Amino acid sequence: MEIFKNLTVLSLEQATVLPYLTYRLAHDGIRIIRLEHPIYGDPNRLVGHNVVGEERMNAYYLCINACKKALTLNLAVPEGQDILKALIKELNVDVFATNQLPRNYKKLGIDYDTLKAVKPDIIWFGATGFGPDSNEPAYDPILQARSGLMEVTGEKEGDPMVLGIPLPDMGTSEHGYGLIMKALYKRAVSGEGSCIHMSMFESSLSWMTVPFTLTSLGRTISRRGNTHEFFAPLSVYKTSDGYVYVAVGNDRQWKSMVSQEIFKSIDKPEYETNKGRIEDVKNLNQAIVAITQNHTSKELIDLFNSITVPISKINTVPEVMEEPLAKKVLLSSEDPISGAKIVMPPSPNMTPFLEEMGRKLPFPPRFGEHNNEVYGQVLGYSEEEINRMKEEKII
């Protein structure tokens, strides 16, 4: 929608939680300008293999930074803070975002009160590990450990395990996305800006719905591997050429399953109800594997689909990317300099902006790539002034 193309987000960002949030906002067509320190920059730029043969353009950084512009700015010096204020005014910044520790807000001149004085209706967003009153550093696995997500992940008799994706990072980004959209609506209605503090810990807690409530009712909740606490059979089953996940969610689906010739041996009275199957889930799953390992994944998928019982092959990442449904929505980006190409997953819905772009996004920006454009054309600094600021490490 054209309305989003008129919005600008200025983001002092690094790592994952905030870059993923602004990447999501970029999918709506919002102009995203990322700020980085002129010496240190975003550490994620140095992680992963070197894709384009240049410094600070490594693979891990490329994942969530397409469709943005990049500036460098040293906010630890007064001139840098003056430039920040000029950027907010001249770019007409709608949202300022940061994932700095709270103790740095006033020191860098990025606290809400300071920026509100520059632009009264600004929406200020701060992502932290444990809220604005804590300066405890936090990375995604720390949040997984602290929030209980790690306790409920892994094999029943095994060690706690991290999730396969950084849910505290990306979950916080998704929650932040919603809060920013609410703040934009509030501003459209009332003309007022907002100050939003988003805690990764609170975001992580929000996913613990069943574990918290059942614990309060006296149940012991911990990791259970691939099975389900209340339904059976739901698990991973080995096939002759891979693995499938089968999810039998009710007694009718179970009856449909055991009505098939290959499963008749487990059509027992004690398994007629979900309660009976749960009580003997270990033996039940062993019996199912003894059957499924003699059949290909495709044979089992065709069979279960014919009786409307949920099943899926457990795809590798390359196989997922080749799925017809995935290929219809995957995004791509090509570096105009090196010719390197990357593929990225879409937002949860295909936005008008992504459709308009043909699902092809501008390549993730190089370190300080847009300094001359923004500082020169927007703020009006001469080439000599820009060179001076570079030499003095202001930009």
Short summary:
With 395 residues, the protein is α/β, with parallel strands linked by helices.
Your description of this structure?
The protein has 395 residues and is of the alpha/beta class. It has 2 domains: 2-206 and 329-391, Rossmann fold; 234-316, 2-Layer Sandwich (formyl-coa transferase, domain 3). It has helices spanning 2-5, 17-26, 59-62, 78-90, 105-108, 112-118, 140-147, 167-190, 200-205, 209-216, 251-258, 274-279, 281-292, 297-306, 317-322, 324-327, 352-356, 371-378, 383-391, and strands spanning 8-12, 31-36, 69-72, 95-98, 123-128, 194-199, 234-239, 242-247, 311-313, 331-334, 341-344. It has a 6-stranded parallel beta sheet with strand order 3-2-1-4-5-6, with helices on both faces. Strand 1, helix 2 and strand 2 form a beta-alpha-beta unit. The two termini are 33 Å apart.
Mean pLDDT figure: 97
- In CATH, the topology of the largest domain is named Rossmann fold
Structural class: alpha/beta
Helix coverage percent: 25-40%
Low-confidence blocks of residues: none
Number of strands: 11
Rg over C-alpha atoms, rounded to the nearest angstrom: 26 Å
Broad shape: elongated
How much strand? 5-15%
Strand order of the largest sheet: 3-2-1-4-5-6
Write down the CATH class of the largest domain. Answer: Alpha Beta
Number of helices: 19
Roughly how many Å apart are the termini? 33 Å
- Label the CATH architecture of the largest domain: 3-Layer(aba) Sandwich
